[in-house]
Amino acid sequence: MTFAAIDPQVSLPTIDKLRFTIPPDLDAAHVAAQWFASFSRAIASTDAASVVDLLAEDAFWRDVLALTWDFRTIQRKDRILSFLNDVLPDVKLGELKIKDDHGKGVEFQQPFPDLAWIQVLFTFETSVGIGSGVVRLIPIPPTSGSGSGSSSSEWKAHSILTNLEDLKNHPEHIGHLRSHSPTHGNKWLSKRQRELDFAAGERQPRVVVIGAGQSGLDVAARLKALDVPTLVVENEGRVGSRWRERYEALCLHDPVWYDHMPYIPFPPTWPTYTPAKKLADWLESYAHSLELNIWTNSTVTSLSQDSSLVSNLDKPGKGAWTITIKRGDANGKGEGDGEGEERTFQVDHVVFAVGLGGGVPVMPRFPGMDEFKGKVVHSSSHKSALEHAGKKVVVVGACTSAHDIAADCVECGVDVTMYQRSSTYIMSVKNGIPILLGLYTEDGPPTDIADRISASFPVPFLKLMAQRLTSVIAEADKETLEGLEKSGFKLNYGEDGSGFFILAWRRAGGYYFDVGASQMIVDGKIKLKNDAQIARFTKGGIQFDDGSEVPADVVIFATGYGDAREPARKLIGDKLADKLLPVWGLNDEGEINSVWRWSGVPGLYFMMGNLALCRFHSKHVALQIKAIEEGVFGNHYTKRS
């Protein structure tokens, strides 16, 4: 699938294509300084044509809120010219400076033998904001007859990122801007309780966040730092309960240095791969340390919008919400019988932070399920394979949860069969993670710098890079992959061979990062069934359309989650919900559909993703809300090429 707003002929700017030879004495800092000086002059004069002259023909400009108050990727010089003509007169882009990042503000990089660029980190300002940027310069081929090599090549930008970091006059209250007023312990405790209760006389919430997982906590922490009163509503009894209650074998497959949270990084003693229950305890500690206002054992019972009070129903702005919450832990300790008080608030913004797919399990239905004598559960309800000792288990699905649960069964001595409905992308954590997440290492750049560099690769360009990385990983995993194929396991290599990245952005699934289950399949310890479709359940198992049958006492559906809009629909009703854009997945520019950005309904946001995405994009959600609250939110750029 191509991106409609992206040139389908886009390709990597390889050295051969550019007819360029890297000189041994290349002065990357000098090249960058010359280009950046020209870029700054063109920006200062709001001369879009002169800016575009400094770009390669198939260049990308990715903007995250700084110029567009949206997430946009514009590709190709003619489109970028139109875009800059639209935005430069209003945003007052200026104060551009190359970032002095311990000598890494300018860096010549060569990720592959035939691919090289000069990466430049920079900062800038707009009329209302402070931003950071990343540009990659490539040598443009000399004109015909002028020979080849660096002496006659002109360096131009192949990709530019402009990212909003802060709002002028509305900084985060952190570091030297934190409160310096001493507070006696007894006064702090009573004041803190009043804040948590949103008692009379205290500032009332302007934002309600639904869900206290990592996504809800991150955005609440960001809003607190921006001095926006925020209430987090969690229907479980404790913060982090969703992680605490998942299957016992669950462990993050991302390394710790990729998973840090805003303001409080994991300590240096933290294990590289975090067990789910340990993460749950961390989230609880995080919320307590940052004094986030969270009502546990609480439920939103109604949510309605007064459209007459919304300035523009088709653009971001205050939502004029009336929200009623049934609080089951009025003592603030996560205790109670669910019969607590009801409170109603008038708020500007509501953030749904209830997880990918809205936390609503997908449970397929088949004929005969009512006759089945065994147990049928979704993976979200599975706890431990020890519960199934002496029984035959069938796991329906072949991605992360399915592999984890099947491996847990093997380790607990439980007979298990994996039913694979469609092919799966497999890569090992050992070989794949260092290649895919090479920016995020213990000795790598600071996490905030790594986040911005990672975000500076537009998804259509990243897809081309991912195709190469996927091949490298597959070669490293060759023995395992060949073993899986011999066992009959159906493999794929992602969309057009791009592996994990595009699967994650489009589907948030379809893959497994192997931490041992693949070898169990190769060895036959996890039995495999994938040569027919499920026809029906029988009293003693599952029958397939080729007549074969797999006996089962327990069937676990590791079949993912549904539409992330459903929790919102249940509260706001169909009329408003029908305006919501798709949440996950990619649009025609290769940008995420509506997570972290305009949802289609004023004052309603979706916040979700892994810990790294939540860390980075929680700031973007908070900045949009703060800008709207302070009346400095600019023009929401909606023009499509």
UniProtKB/TrEMBL annotation:
SUPFAM superfamilies: FAD/NAD(P)-binding domain. Gene3D superfamilies: FAD/NAD(P)-binding domain. It comes from the Eukaryota. Keywords: FAD, Flavoprotein, Oxidoreductase. One of its GO terms (molecular function) is NADP binding. Signal peptide: none annotated. InterPro entries: Auxin_biosynth/cation_transpt (IPR050982), FAD/NAD-bd_sf (IPR036188), Flavin_mOase-like (IPR020946). It holds the Pfam family FMO-like. This is FAD/NAD(P)-binding domain-containing protein. It comes from Rickenella mellea.
